[in-house]
Design brief:
By secondary structure, the protein is mainly alpha-helical. 60% of the residues lie in helices and 4% in strands. The strands form 2 sheets. Strands 1-2-3 form a 3-stranded mixed sheet. It has a two-stranded antiparallel sheet with strand order 4-5.
Length: 559
């Protein structure tokens, strides 16, 4: 619980720093706090260039973040969430600490210089890297490491969108891909902590101010159902188009990778010149669309423009998320659909804003297949319970149709293209050929042989292991005591039962750091607890701990 709060606070603070960096770079390069709020205007620093300055900003940004990412953290390229999913599924939750710093700068430069991407993917990766770093410093077990990574992701989403519940379900549905009481409790603590920090800095309002609306006619449910099906097609199309453009950029570019963002920035600049509403995240444009501020034709143009601008930003090597672009695309689709049905069925259709909101959730659900997150985040944005039924209907239909149309999602397709299946072993995994020393975890805190049984029971229950090493008063390793042995001894007290763990300690069959894992598996399977100590082959002293989990990960992941 304490670690979850610490990670949540770190993610909240990281969100503040990240947003400050975005605003700073945007003002430096455009002269505006958010250029999407004043599209097509001149840069007050360079008024003589007029709107043509947007041809240069992506090039300048690319020259700054391209070498940074290429030199220090290549995994900071792209939208970030797939890398976190991979780290949790196949790497024990291990994420390099430098990712947090590089991702912050690279994504802020990408968005500030016109990259049409979101800020949720970067803050998920930043928060997750902070959680992983804390776990490695404290040498927690793999299960706790994964949980801390999820806490960082939950805190990042909560602070970014001022949506604590959405942060929790995003972490559980997409990062952990499991629902347990422990995971829920930990991610809630992290999410609440990050939200408190975010609200102290940015206020208690959501990042969008949506109009009030409600369902007036039962026939509207049929209209929302049709919108959900259309949103699934658009969401899957967005995911496919994103990687199609990335493949095209890979095929066309033959120069050094560090220069690719600057060279591709010329193309992105042309898109921004033609459609300046695509600059950055684009929340002001999304807000105006939900209020019915655009005509149907222009809404569809904005939808297609966002697909192109986001895909091009990612394809040239930019760093940013695809969550916000999917919401943007959904809002444009929903608004256009709402205006159309309002003209066709003026007495039945209802408010246009309702269709924009439902479109946002449905397109995200269609592209990411995270229906619970989609429902929760849209509900938190509005606080309108009356919209929950059509929202759930459209999102579930979008998710189901997406399953029929595509095997992967906007997140997993990136991994599938690299030959990675989150449900199976990693590509190139060696089945037991590694040395035990290469796959073992840190040695748990040992127990002194004189430890009373009641205290030992408490320490064993909090260790995450079913057994712990025991050392005598001279510091010599004497064996292992299991939770089962301590529990049985406590049940037998007070008649003739041992009072200290030294009396229950037994030496397990030796496993040394230099032997193959395949040889150690037989010993591990016969171990009384959930693991056993790994001995230094020269001195026969414990230097690590081989658990069932670490052994399974070793045969499941690449060397």
């Amino acid at each position: 619980m304490a670690l979850a709060v610490i990670v949540g606070a770190g993610a909240g603070a990281g969100s503040l720093v990240f947003r400050w960096c975005i605003q700073t770079f945007t003002r430096l390069l455009t002269g505006h706090g958010d250029y999407a709020a004043a599209p097509g205007t001149a840069n007050p620093h360079l008024p003589w260039l007029g709107p043509y300055f947007v041809l240069l900003t992506p090039v300048i940004g690319g020259l700054l973040y391209g070498p940074l990412v290429n030199r220090f953290a290549k995994e900071a390229r792209g939208h970030g969430v797939p890398e976190v999913m991979l780290a949790v599924a196949q790497r024990g939750g291990r994420i390099s600490p430098k990712v947090a710093v590089v991702k912050t700068l690279a994504s802020a430069l990408t968005i500030g210089s016109g990259g049409s991407v979101g800020r949720e993917g970067p803050i998920v990766q930043i928060g997750s890297a902070l959680g992983s770093t804390l776990g490695r410093l404290l040498k927690v077990t793999e299960g706790r490491m994964r949980l801390l990574v999820a806490c960082g992701a939950a805190g990042g989403i909560a602070a970014t969108f001022n949506a604590p519940l959405a942060g929790v379900f995003f972490a559980m549905e997409l990062i952990l891909r499991t629902f347990t009481a422990e995971a829920f409790g930990a991610t809630v603590l992290a999410s609440v902590t990050a939200s408190v920090i975010g609200r102290a800095a940015f206020g208690d309002s959501a990042f969008l101010s949506l109009p009030d609306f409600h369902v007036d006619h039962l026939a509207q449910y049929g209209l929302f159902a049709l919108l959900g099906i259309a949103a699934a097609i658009v969401g899957v199309g967005f995911a496919r188009f994103l990687y199609l453009v990335e493949d095209a950029c890979d095929w066309l570019w033959r120069g050094p990778e560090w220069l690719r963002p600057a060279a591709g920035g010329l193309l992105l600049g042309l898109v921004l010149l033609a459609l300046p509403q695509m600059y950055g995240v684009g929340y002001p444009v999304l807000q105006k669309a939900t209020e019915g501020g655009y005509a149907v034709g222009f809404l569809l143009l904005l939808m297609l423009g966002k697909m192109l601008a986001t895909s091009l930003t990612i394809g040239i090597g930019g760093s940013g998320g695809v969550f916000a672009p999917s919401l943007f695309i959904g809002a444009m689709l929903g608004s256009a659909y709402g205006i159309t049905v309002h003209h066709l069925l003026p007495g039945t259709a209802g408010a246009v804003g309702a269709y924009a909101l439902v479109g946002m959730g449905a397109v995200f659900a269609g592209s990411a297949r995270a229906p619970i997150t989609a429902v929760v985040i849209l509900f938190e944005l509005t606080g309108e319970y009356s919209i929950i039924l059509p929202l759930m209907l459209a999102i579930v239909l979008a998710t189901a149709v997406s399953h029929l149309l595509s095997h992967g999602t906007v997140y997993t397709l990136k991994l599938h293209r690299r030959g990675i299946d989150l449900e199976g072993p990693a590509r190139g995994a060696r089945l037991g050929g590694q040395r035990v020393g290469a796959v073992m975890g840190p040695l748990p805190a040992p127990l002194p042989a004189s430890t009373p049984l009641a205290e030992a029971a408490d320490l064993l229950s909090r260790s995450g292991h079913g057994a712990l090493p025991v050392f005598d008063s001279a510091g010599n390793y004497v064996g292992v005591v299991t939770a089962q042995a301590v529990a049985e001894a406590l049940a037998e007290q007070p008649e003739g039962a041992p009072a200290e763990v030294g009396q229950l300690t037994e030496p397990p069959a030796p496993v040394t750091a230099d032997e193959p894992l395949a040889h150690a598996l037989h010993t591990l399977l016969s171990a009384a607890g959930t693991g056993l100590p790994v001995l230094d082959p020269a001195r026969a002293v414990p230097v690590g701990w081989l658990s069932h989990q670490s052994a399974l990960r070793a045969v499941h992941t690449a060397a």
